[in-house]
Amino acid sequence: NIVRFTKKFPYPIGISPILVLQELKVNGPKKQIELAGMLGFTKGAMTSIANKLAANDLVVRIYDETDRRTIQLDITDEGRNALKKAAEIGEQIYLDLFSALTAEEIETYLALQKKLIQHKE
User: Residue 7 in 3-state DSSP?
Assistant: First the structure.
């Protein structure tokens, strides 16, 4: 499914950068180190993700005027468009995948997923 998603997604980024965009959309501007910690990325991976997002105009870097070393990332309108497109593609892949199941099979699947999630909590 990730390969199907990547082939349809018009932006040259993968799932990890999309997670960063979602975090910025929901919680506002963040420092790279904060994002890395929240999402479980290394500092190096987060730097690479930030560079790719900035190069594609999906985020902007905001510099603190009192301390130029403090830099936050913020999502752009184009980043919001990318998230919207990702959601549309993800929904279509989900619908295509689950169209093979009956309503009863979907209920069973969801019950199993819920049980697995509750087991890990």
Answer: helix
Torsion of CA 67, 39, 91, 48, to 10 degrees: 60
> How many CB atoms within 10 Å of residue 23?
17
pLDDT of the chain along its 121 residues, tens only? Answer: 889 999 999 999 999 999 999 999 999 999 999 999 999 999 999 999 999 999 999 999 999 888 878 899 999 999 999 999 999 999 999 999 999 999 999 999 999 999 999 987 6
* CA neighbor of 47 nearest in space, from 63, 36, 60, 62: 36
Strand-pairing partners, residue 75, are 59
Alpha carbons 49 and 64: distance in angstroms, whole number = 21
Q: For residue 32, how far is the Cα from the chain centroid?
A: 15
